[in-house]
Amino acid sequence: DQQVKQNSPSLSVQEGRISILNCDYTNSMFDYFLWYKKYPAEGPTFLISISSIKDKNEDGRFTVFLNKSAKHLSLHIVPSQPGDSAVYFCAARLDSGNTGKLIFGQGTTLQVKP
Amino acid sequence: ETGVTQSPTHLIKTRGQQVTLRCSSQSGHNTVSWYQQALGQGPQFIFQYYREEENGRGNFPPRFSGLQFPNYSSELNVNALELDDSALYLCASSLGGTGEAFFGQGTRLTVV
Known about the structure:
The complex is a heterodimer. By secondary structure, chain A is mainly β. In chain A, about 0% of the residues lie in helices and about 60% in strands. In chain A, strands 2, 4, 5, 9, 10 and 11 form a 6-stranded mixed beta sheet that branches. In chain A, strands 1-3-8-7-6 form a 5-stranded antiparallel beta sheet, with no helix packed on it. Chain A starts with a strand and ends with a strand. The model of chain A has no long low-confidence stretch (mean pLDDT about 95). Chain B is mainly beta. Chain B has no helices and 11 strands. Chain B has strands at about 5, 10-15, 20-25, 30-35, 45-50, 55, 65-70, 75-80, 85-95, 100-105, 105-110. The interface of A and B includes residues 4, 102, 105 and 107 of A.
């Protein structure tokens, strides 16, 4: 039962253009959504998050959009830079009492070409 | 401020053996979560420890167990290793169960 899905395994964009990474979810009880970036041989690094009561959160070049009716979120990176090349994981938090269990998608590998 | 550190970074074990993985949480964090990441998949929640007590568990069998110590460091123990246990094991620390999670670099376990 895949509650969080990233349907695109990979994405390639040109430097300076926009990167759009997508994520779909099924559980309406998720209270927070997060994006993590992962380089090889490193652990995931937190990038940006959004509360389920918001529809947009922006931090510098990164913006996350949440469409609750469609159970869909997306991460926009503008402008894309070669250093952004990494695996991006979408994660949703299920708050059960004081346990912040994160449920991850399968990841999307972003390649930004110079 | 030290980050989350895990040891060892790589490990090879034989099927049926037992393994212990270790995690030192970020300074000031009292909660540790463990995740298993199989090849080509996203991390899957194993369990979480808050103030030395298990505080939530994912869909993993009882041969996956853990400990948290008074200094908030943690161990993940896996008994009776199976080939499918081969994966990257990630530890994440946070302040409280729902605080922002900071991940370590992971331990790559290979079961042969």
